[in-house]
Amino acid sequence: MPMNAPFPAVRIRDEFPVFRHHPDLIYLDNAATTHKPLAVLDAERDFYETANANVHRAAHRLGSAATDAFEGARHRIATHLNAAHADEVIFTRGTTEAINLAANSWGRANLRPGDVILASVLEHHANIVPWQLVAQQTGAVVRPIPLGADGNIDPAAFGALLTAEVRLVALTHCSNATGVLPPLQPMIAAAKAAGARVLIDGAQGIAHAGVDVRALGADFYAFSGHKVYGPTGVGVLWARRELLAHMPPWQGGGEMIDRVSFDGTTFAEPPFRFEAGTPPIAQAVGLAAALDWLDRHDRPALLAHETALRDRFEAGLQSLDGIRILGAGTARGPITALAFDRVHPYDVAQFLDGYGVAVRVGQHCAGPLHQWLGLNGSLRASFAAYNTGADVDAALAALATTLDMLA
Ligand SMILES: Cc1ncc(COP(=O)(O)O)c(C=O)c1O
Description:
Blueprint: H1 9-13, H2 18-21, E1 26-27, H3 38-50, H4 61-81, E2 89-92, H5 95-110, E3 116-120, H6 129-138, E4 141-145, H7 155-161, E5 166-172, H8 184-193, E6 197-201, H9 205-208, H10 213-216, E7 220-224, E8 235-239, H11 241-245, E9 257-261, E10 264-267, H12 281-295, H13 299-317, E11 323-325, E12 335-340, H14 345-354, E13 357-358, E14 360-362, H15 367-373, E15 378-382, H16 389-406
Parallel strand pairs: 1-13, 3-4, 3-5, 5-6, 6-7
Antiparallel strand pairs: 2-8, 7-8, 9-10, 11-12, 12-15, 14-15
Helix pairs in contact: 3-12, 4-12, 5-6, 13-16, 14-16
Cofactor: pyridoxal 5'-phosphate
Family: Belongs to the class-V pyridoxal-phosphate-dependent aminotransferase family. Csd subfamily.
Catalytic activity: (sulfur carrier)-H + L-cysteine = (sulfur carrier)-SH + L-alanine
């Protein structure tokens, strides 16, 4: 498509069969999971119809076709990430498993009593709890990176935490709860200069801002297929080849071994060392199709479209009383989180569902952030490629009616 043209959201919506089944759906829960375009559904179906077999071990032609499709997906994903090598892409079940892999493999091999892991207050539980578990096992400690009054991380305050004991910094690319975008570049540079490894949770960031892992400069990048128009059950941990070469396995089983005997087992090279058992084969093919689908679009125009929807939504909120936008004063992705003065967000979300408006309510697996905000929960609207200005206007009208009724 021509660059600099407005993003064709209305046409793109036709590529998502869910809207044929639910024509009135106003889906603003994209940070939880996105819907799937036909290109992804077709890729998975085509795999099952034409190439379904187990990978890497079959001595028959379908096994070769399956292996080619699966390894082809790894190459396409590596290209999308601008990774230096396809073997830097490890398939997992999703972001959660990717971070658990890093924590269990890299963490258990490298963390010692007294070492420090820094995780920001913005993090999803998936980027806190695996580090707490590995800290319990190794004697390391997990410390929070605090937020400034604007709800974002102050790089200077972060710099003050970077002592010689810090071995790993766990940071989100984009907060799933408030959409806040931490200042990654200066933070990654400072962490690396202090000798720490950096893991970026890209679950939200990859769908909006996109990622170039080499330009980003972090050590690990984790994301889920289902939040980037791909299937559930598949995700990726990317890490630099030199780092993976020294990481031990974390799950044992088939596929990840070199040779097994009761006298001792040796392990395969990365990425297979980290992929025990049958991997998510069709899902990996679907994920590659999702990233190809994204690459066929003008990414800056897509981000501008999603951001314009967020801004339209937030401008419309100005005429409603008793609503606060969380993190309003800092850089954010296309996510709006709201706190209400007089009504409970759960009640609001239920009424909105009655008007066909799907939003998320609760703590969004970001307990420490909500503790910092002093809130039991918030209501989140998150925007994606297929959302339109009409979606936003309908959501605003439903919200105005809801607040009137609950008043
Ligand atoms: C920022 C962030 N990290 C991690 C996760 C966990 O992703 P998954 O459940 O796909 O493993 C999510 C999901 O909401 C998320 O938004």
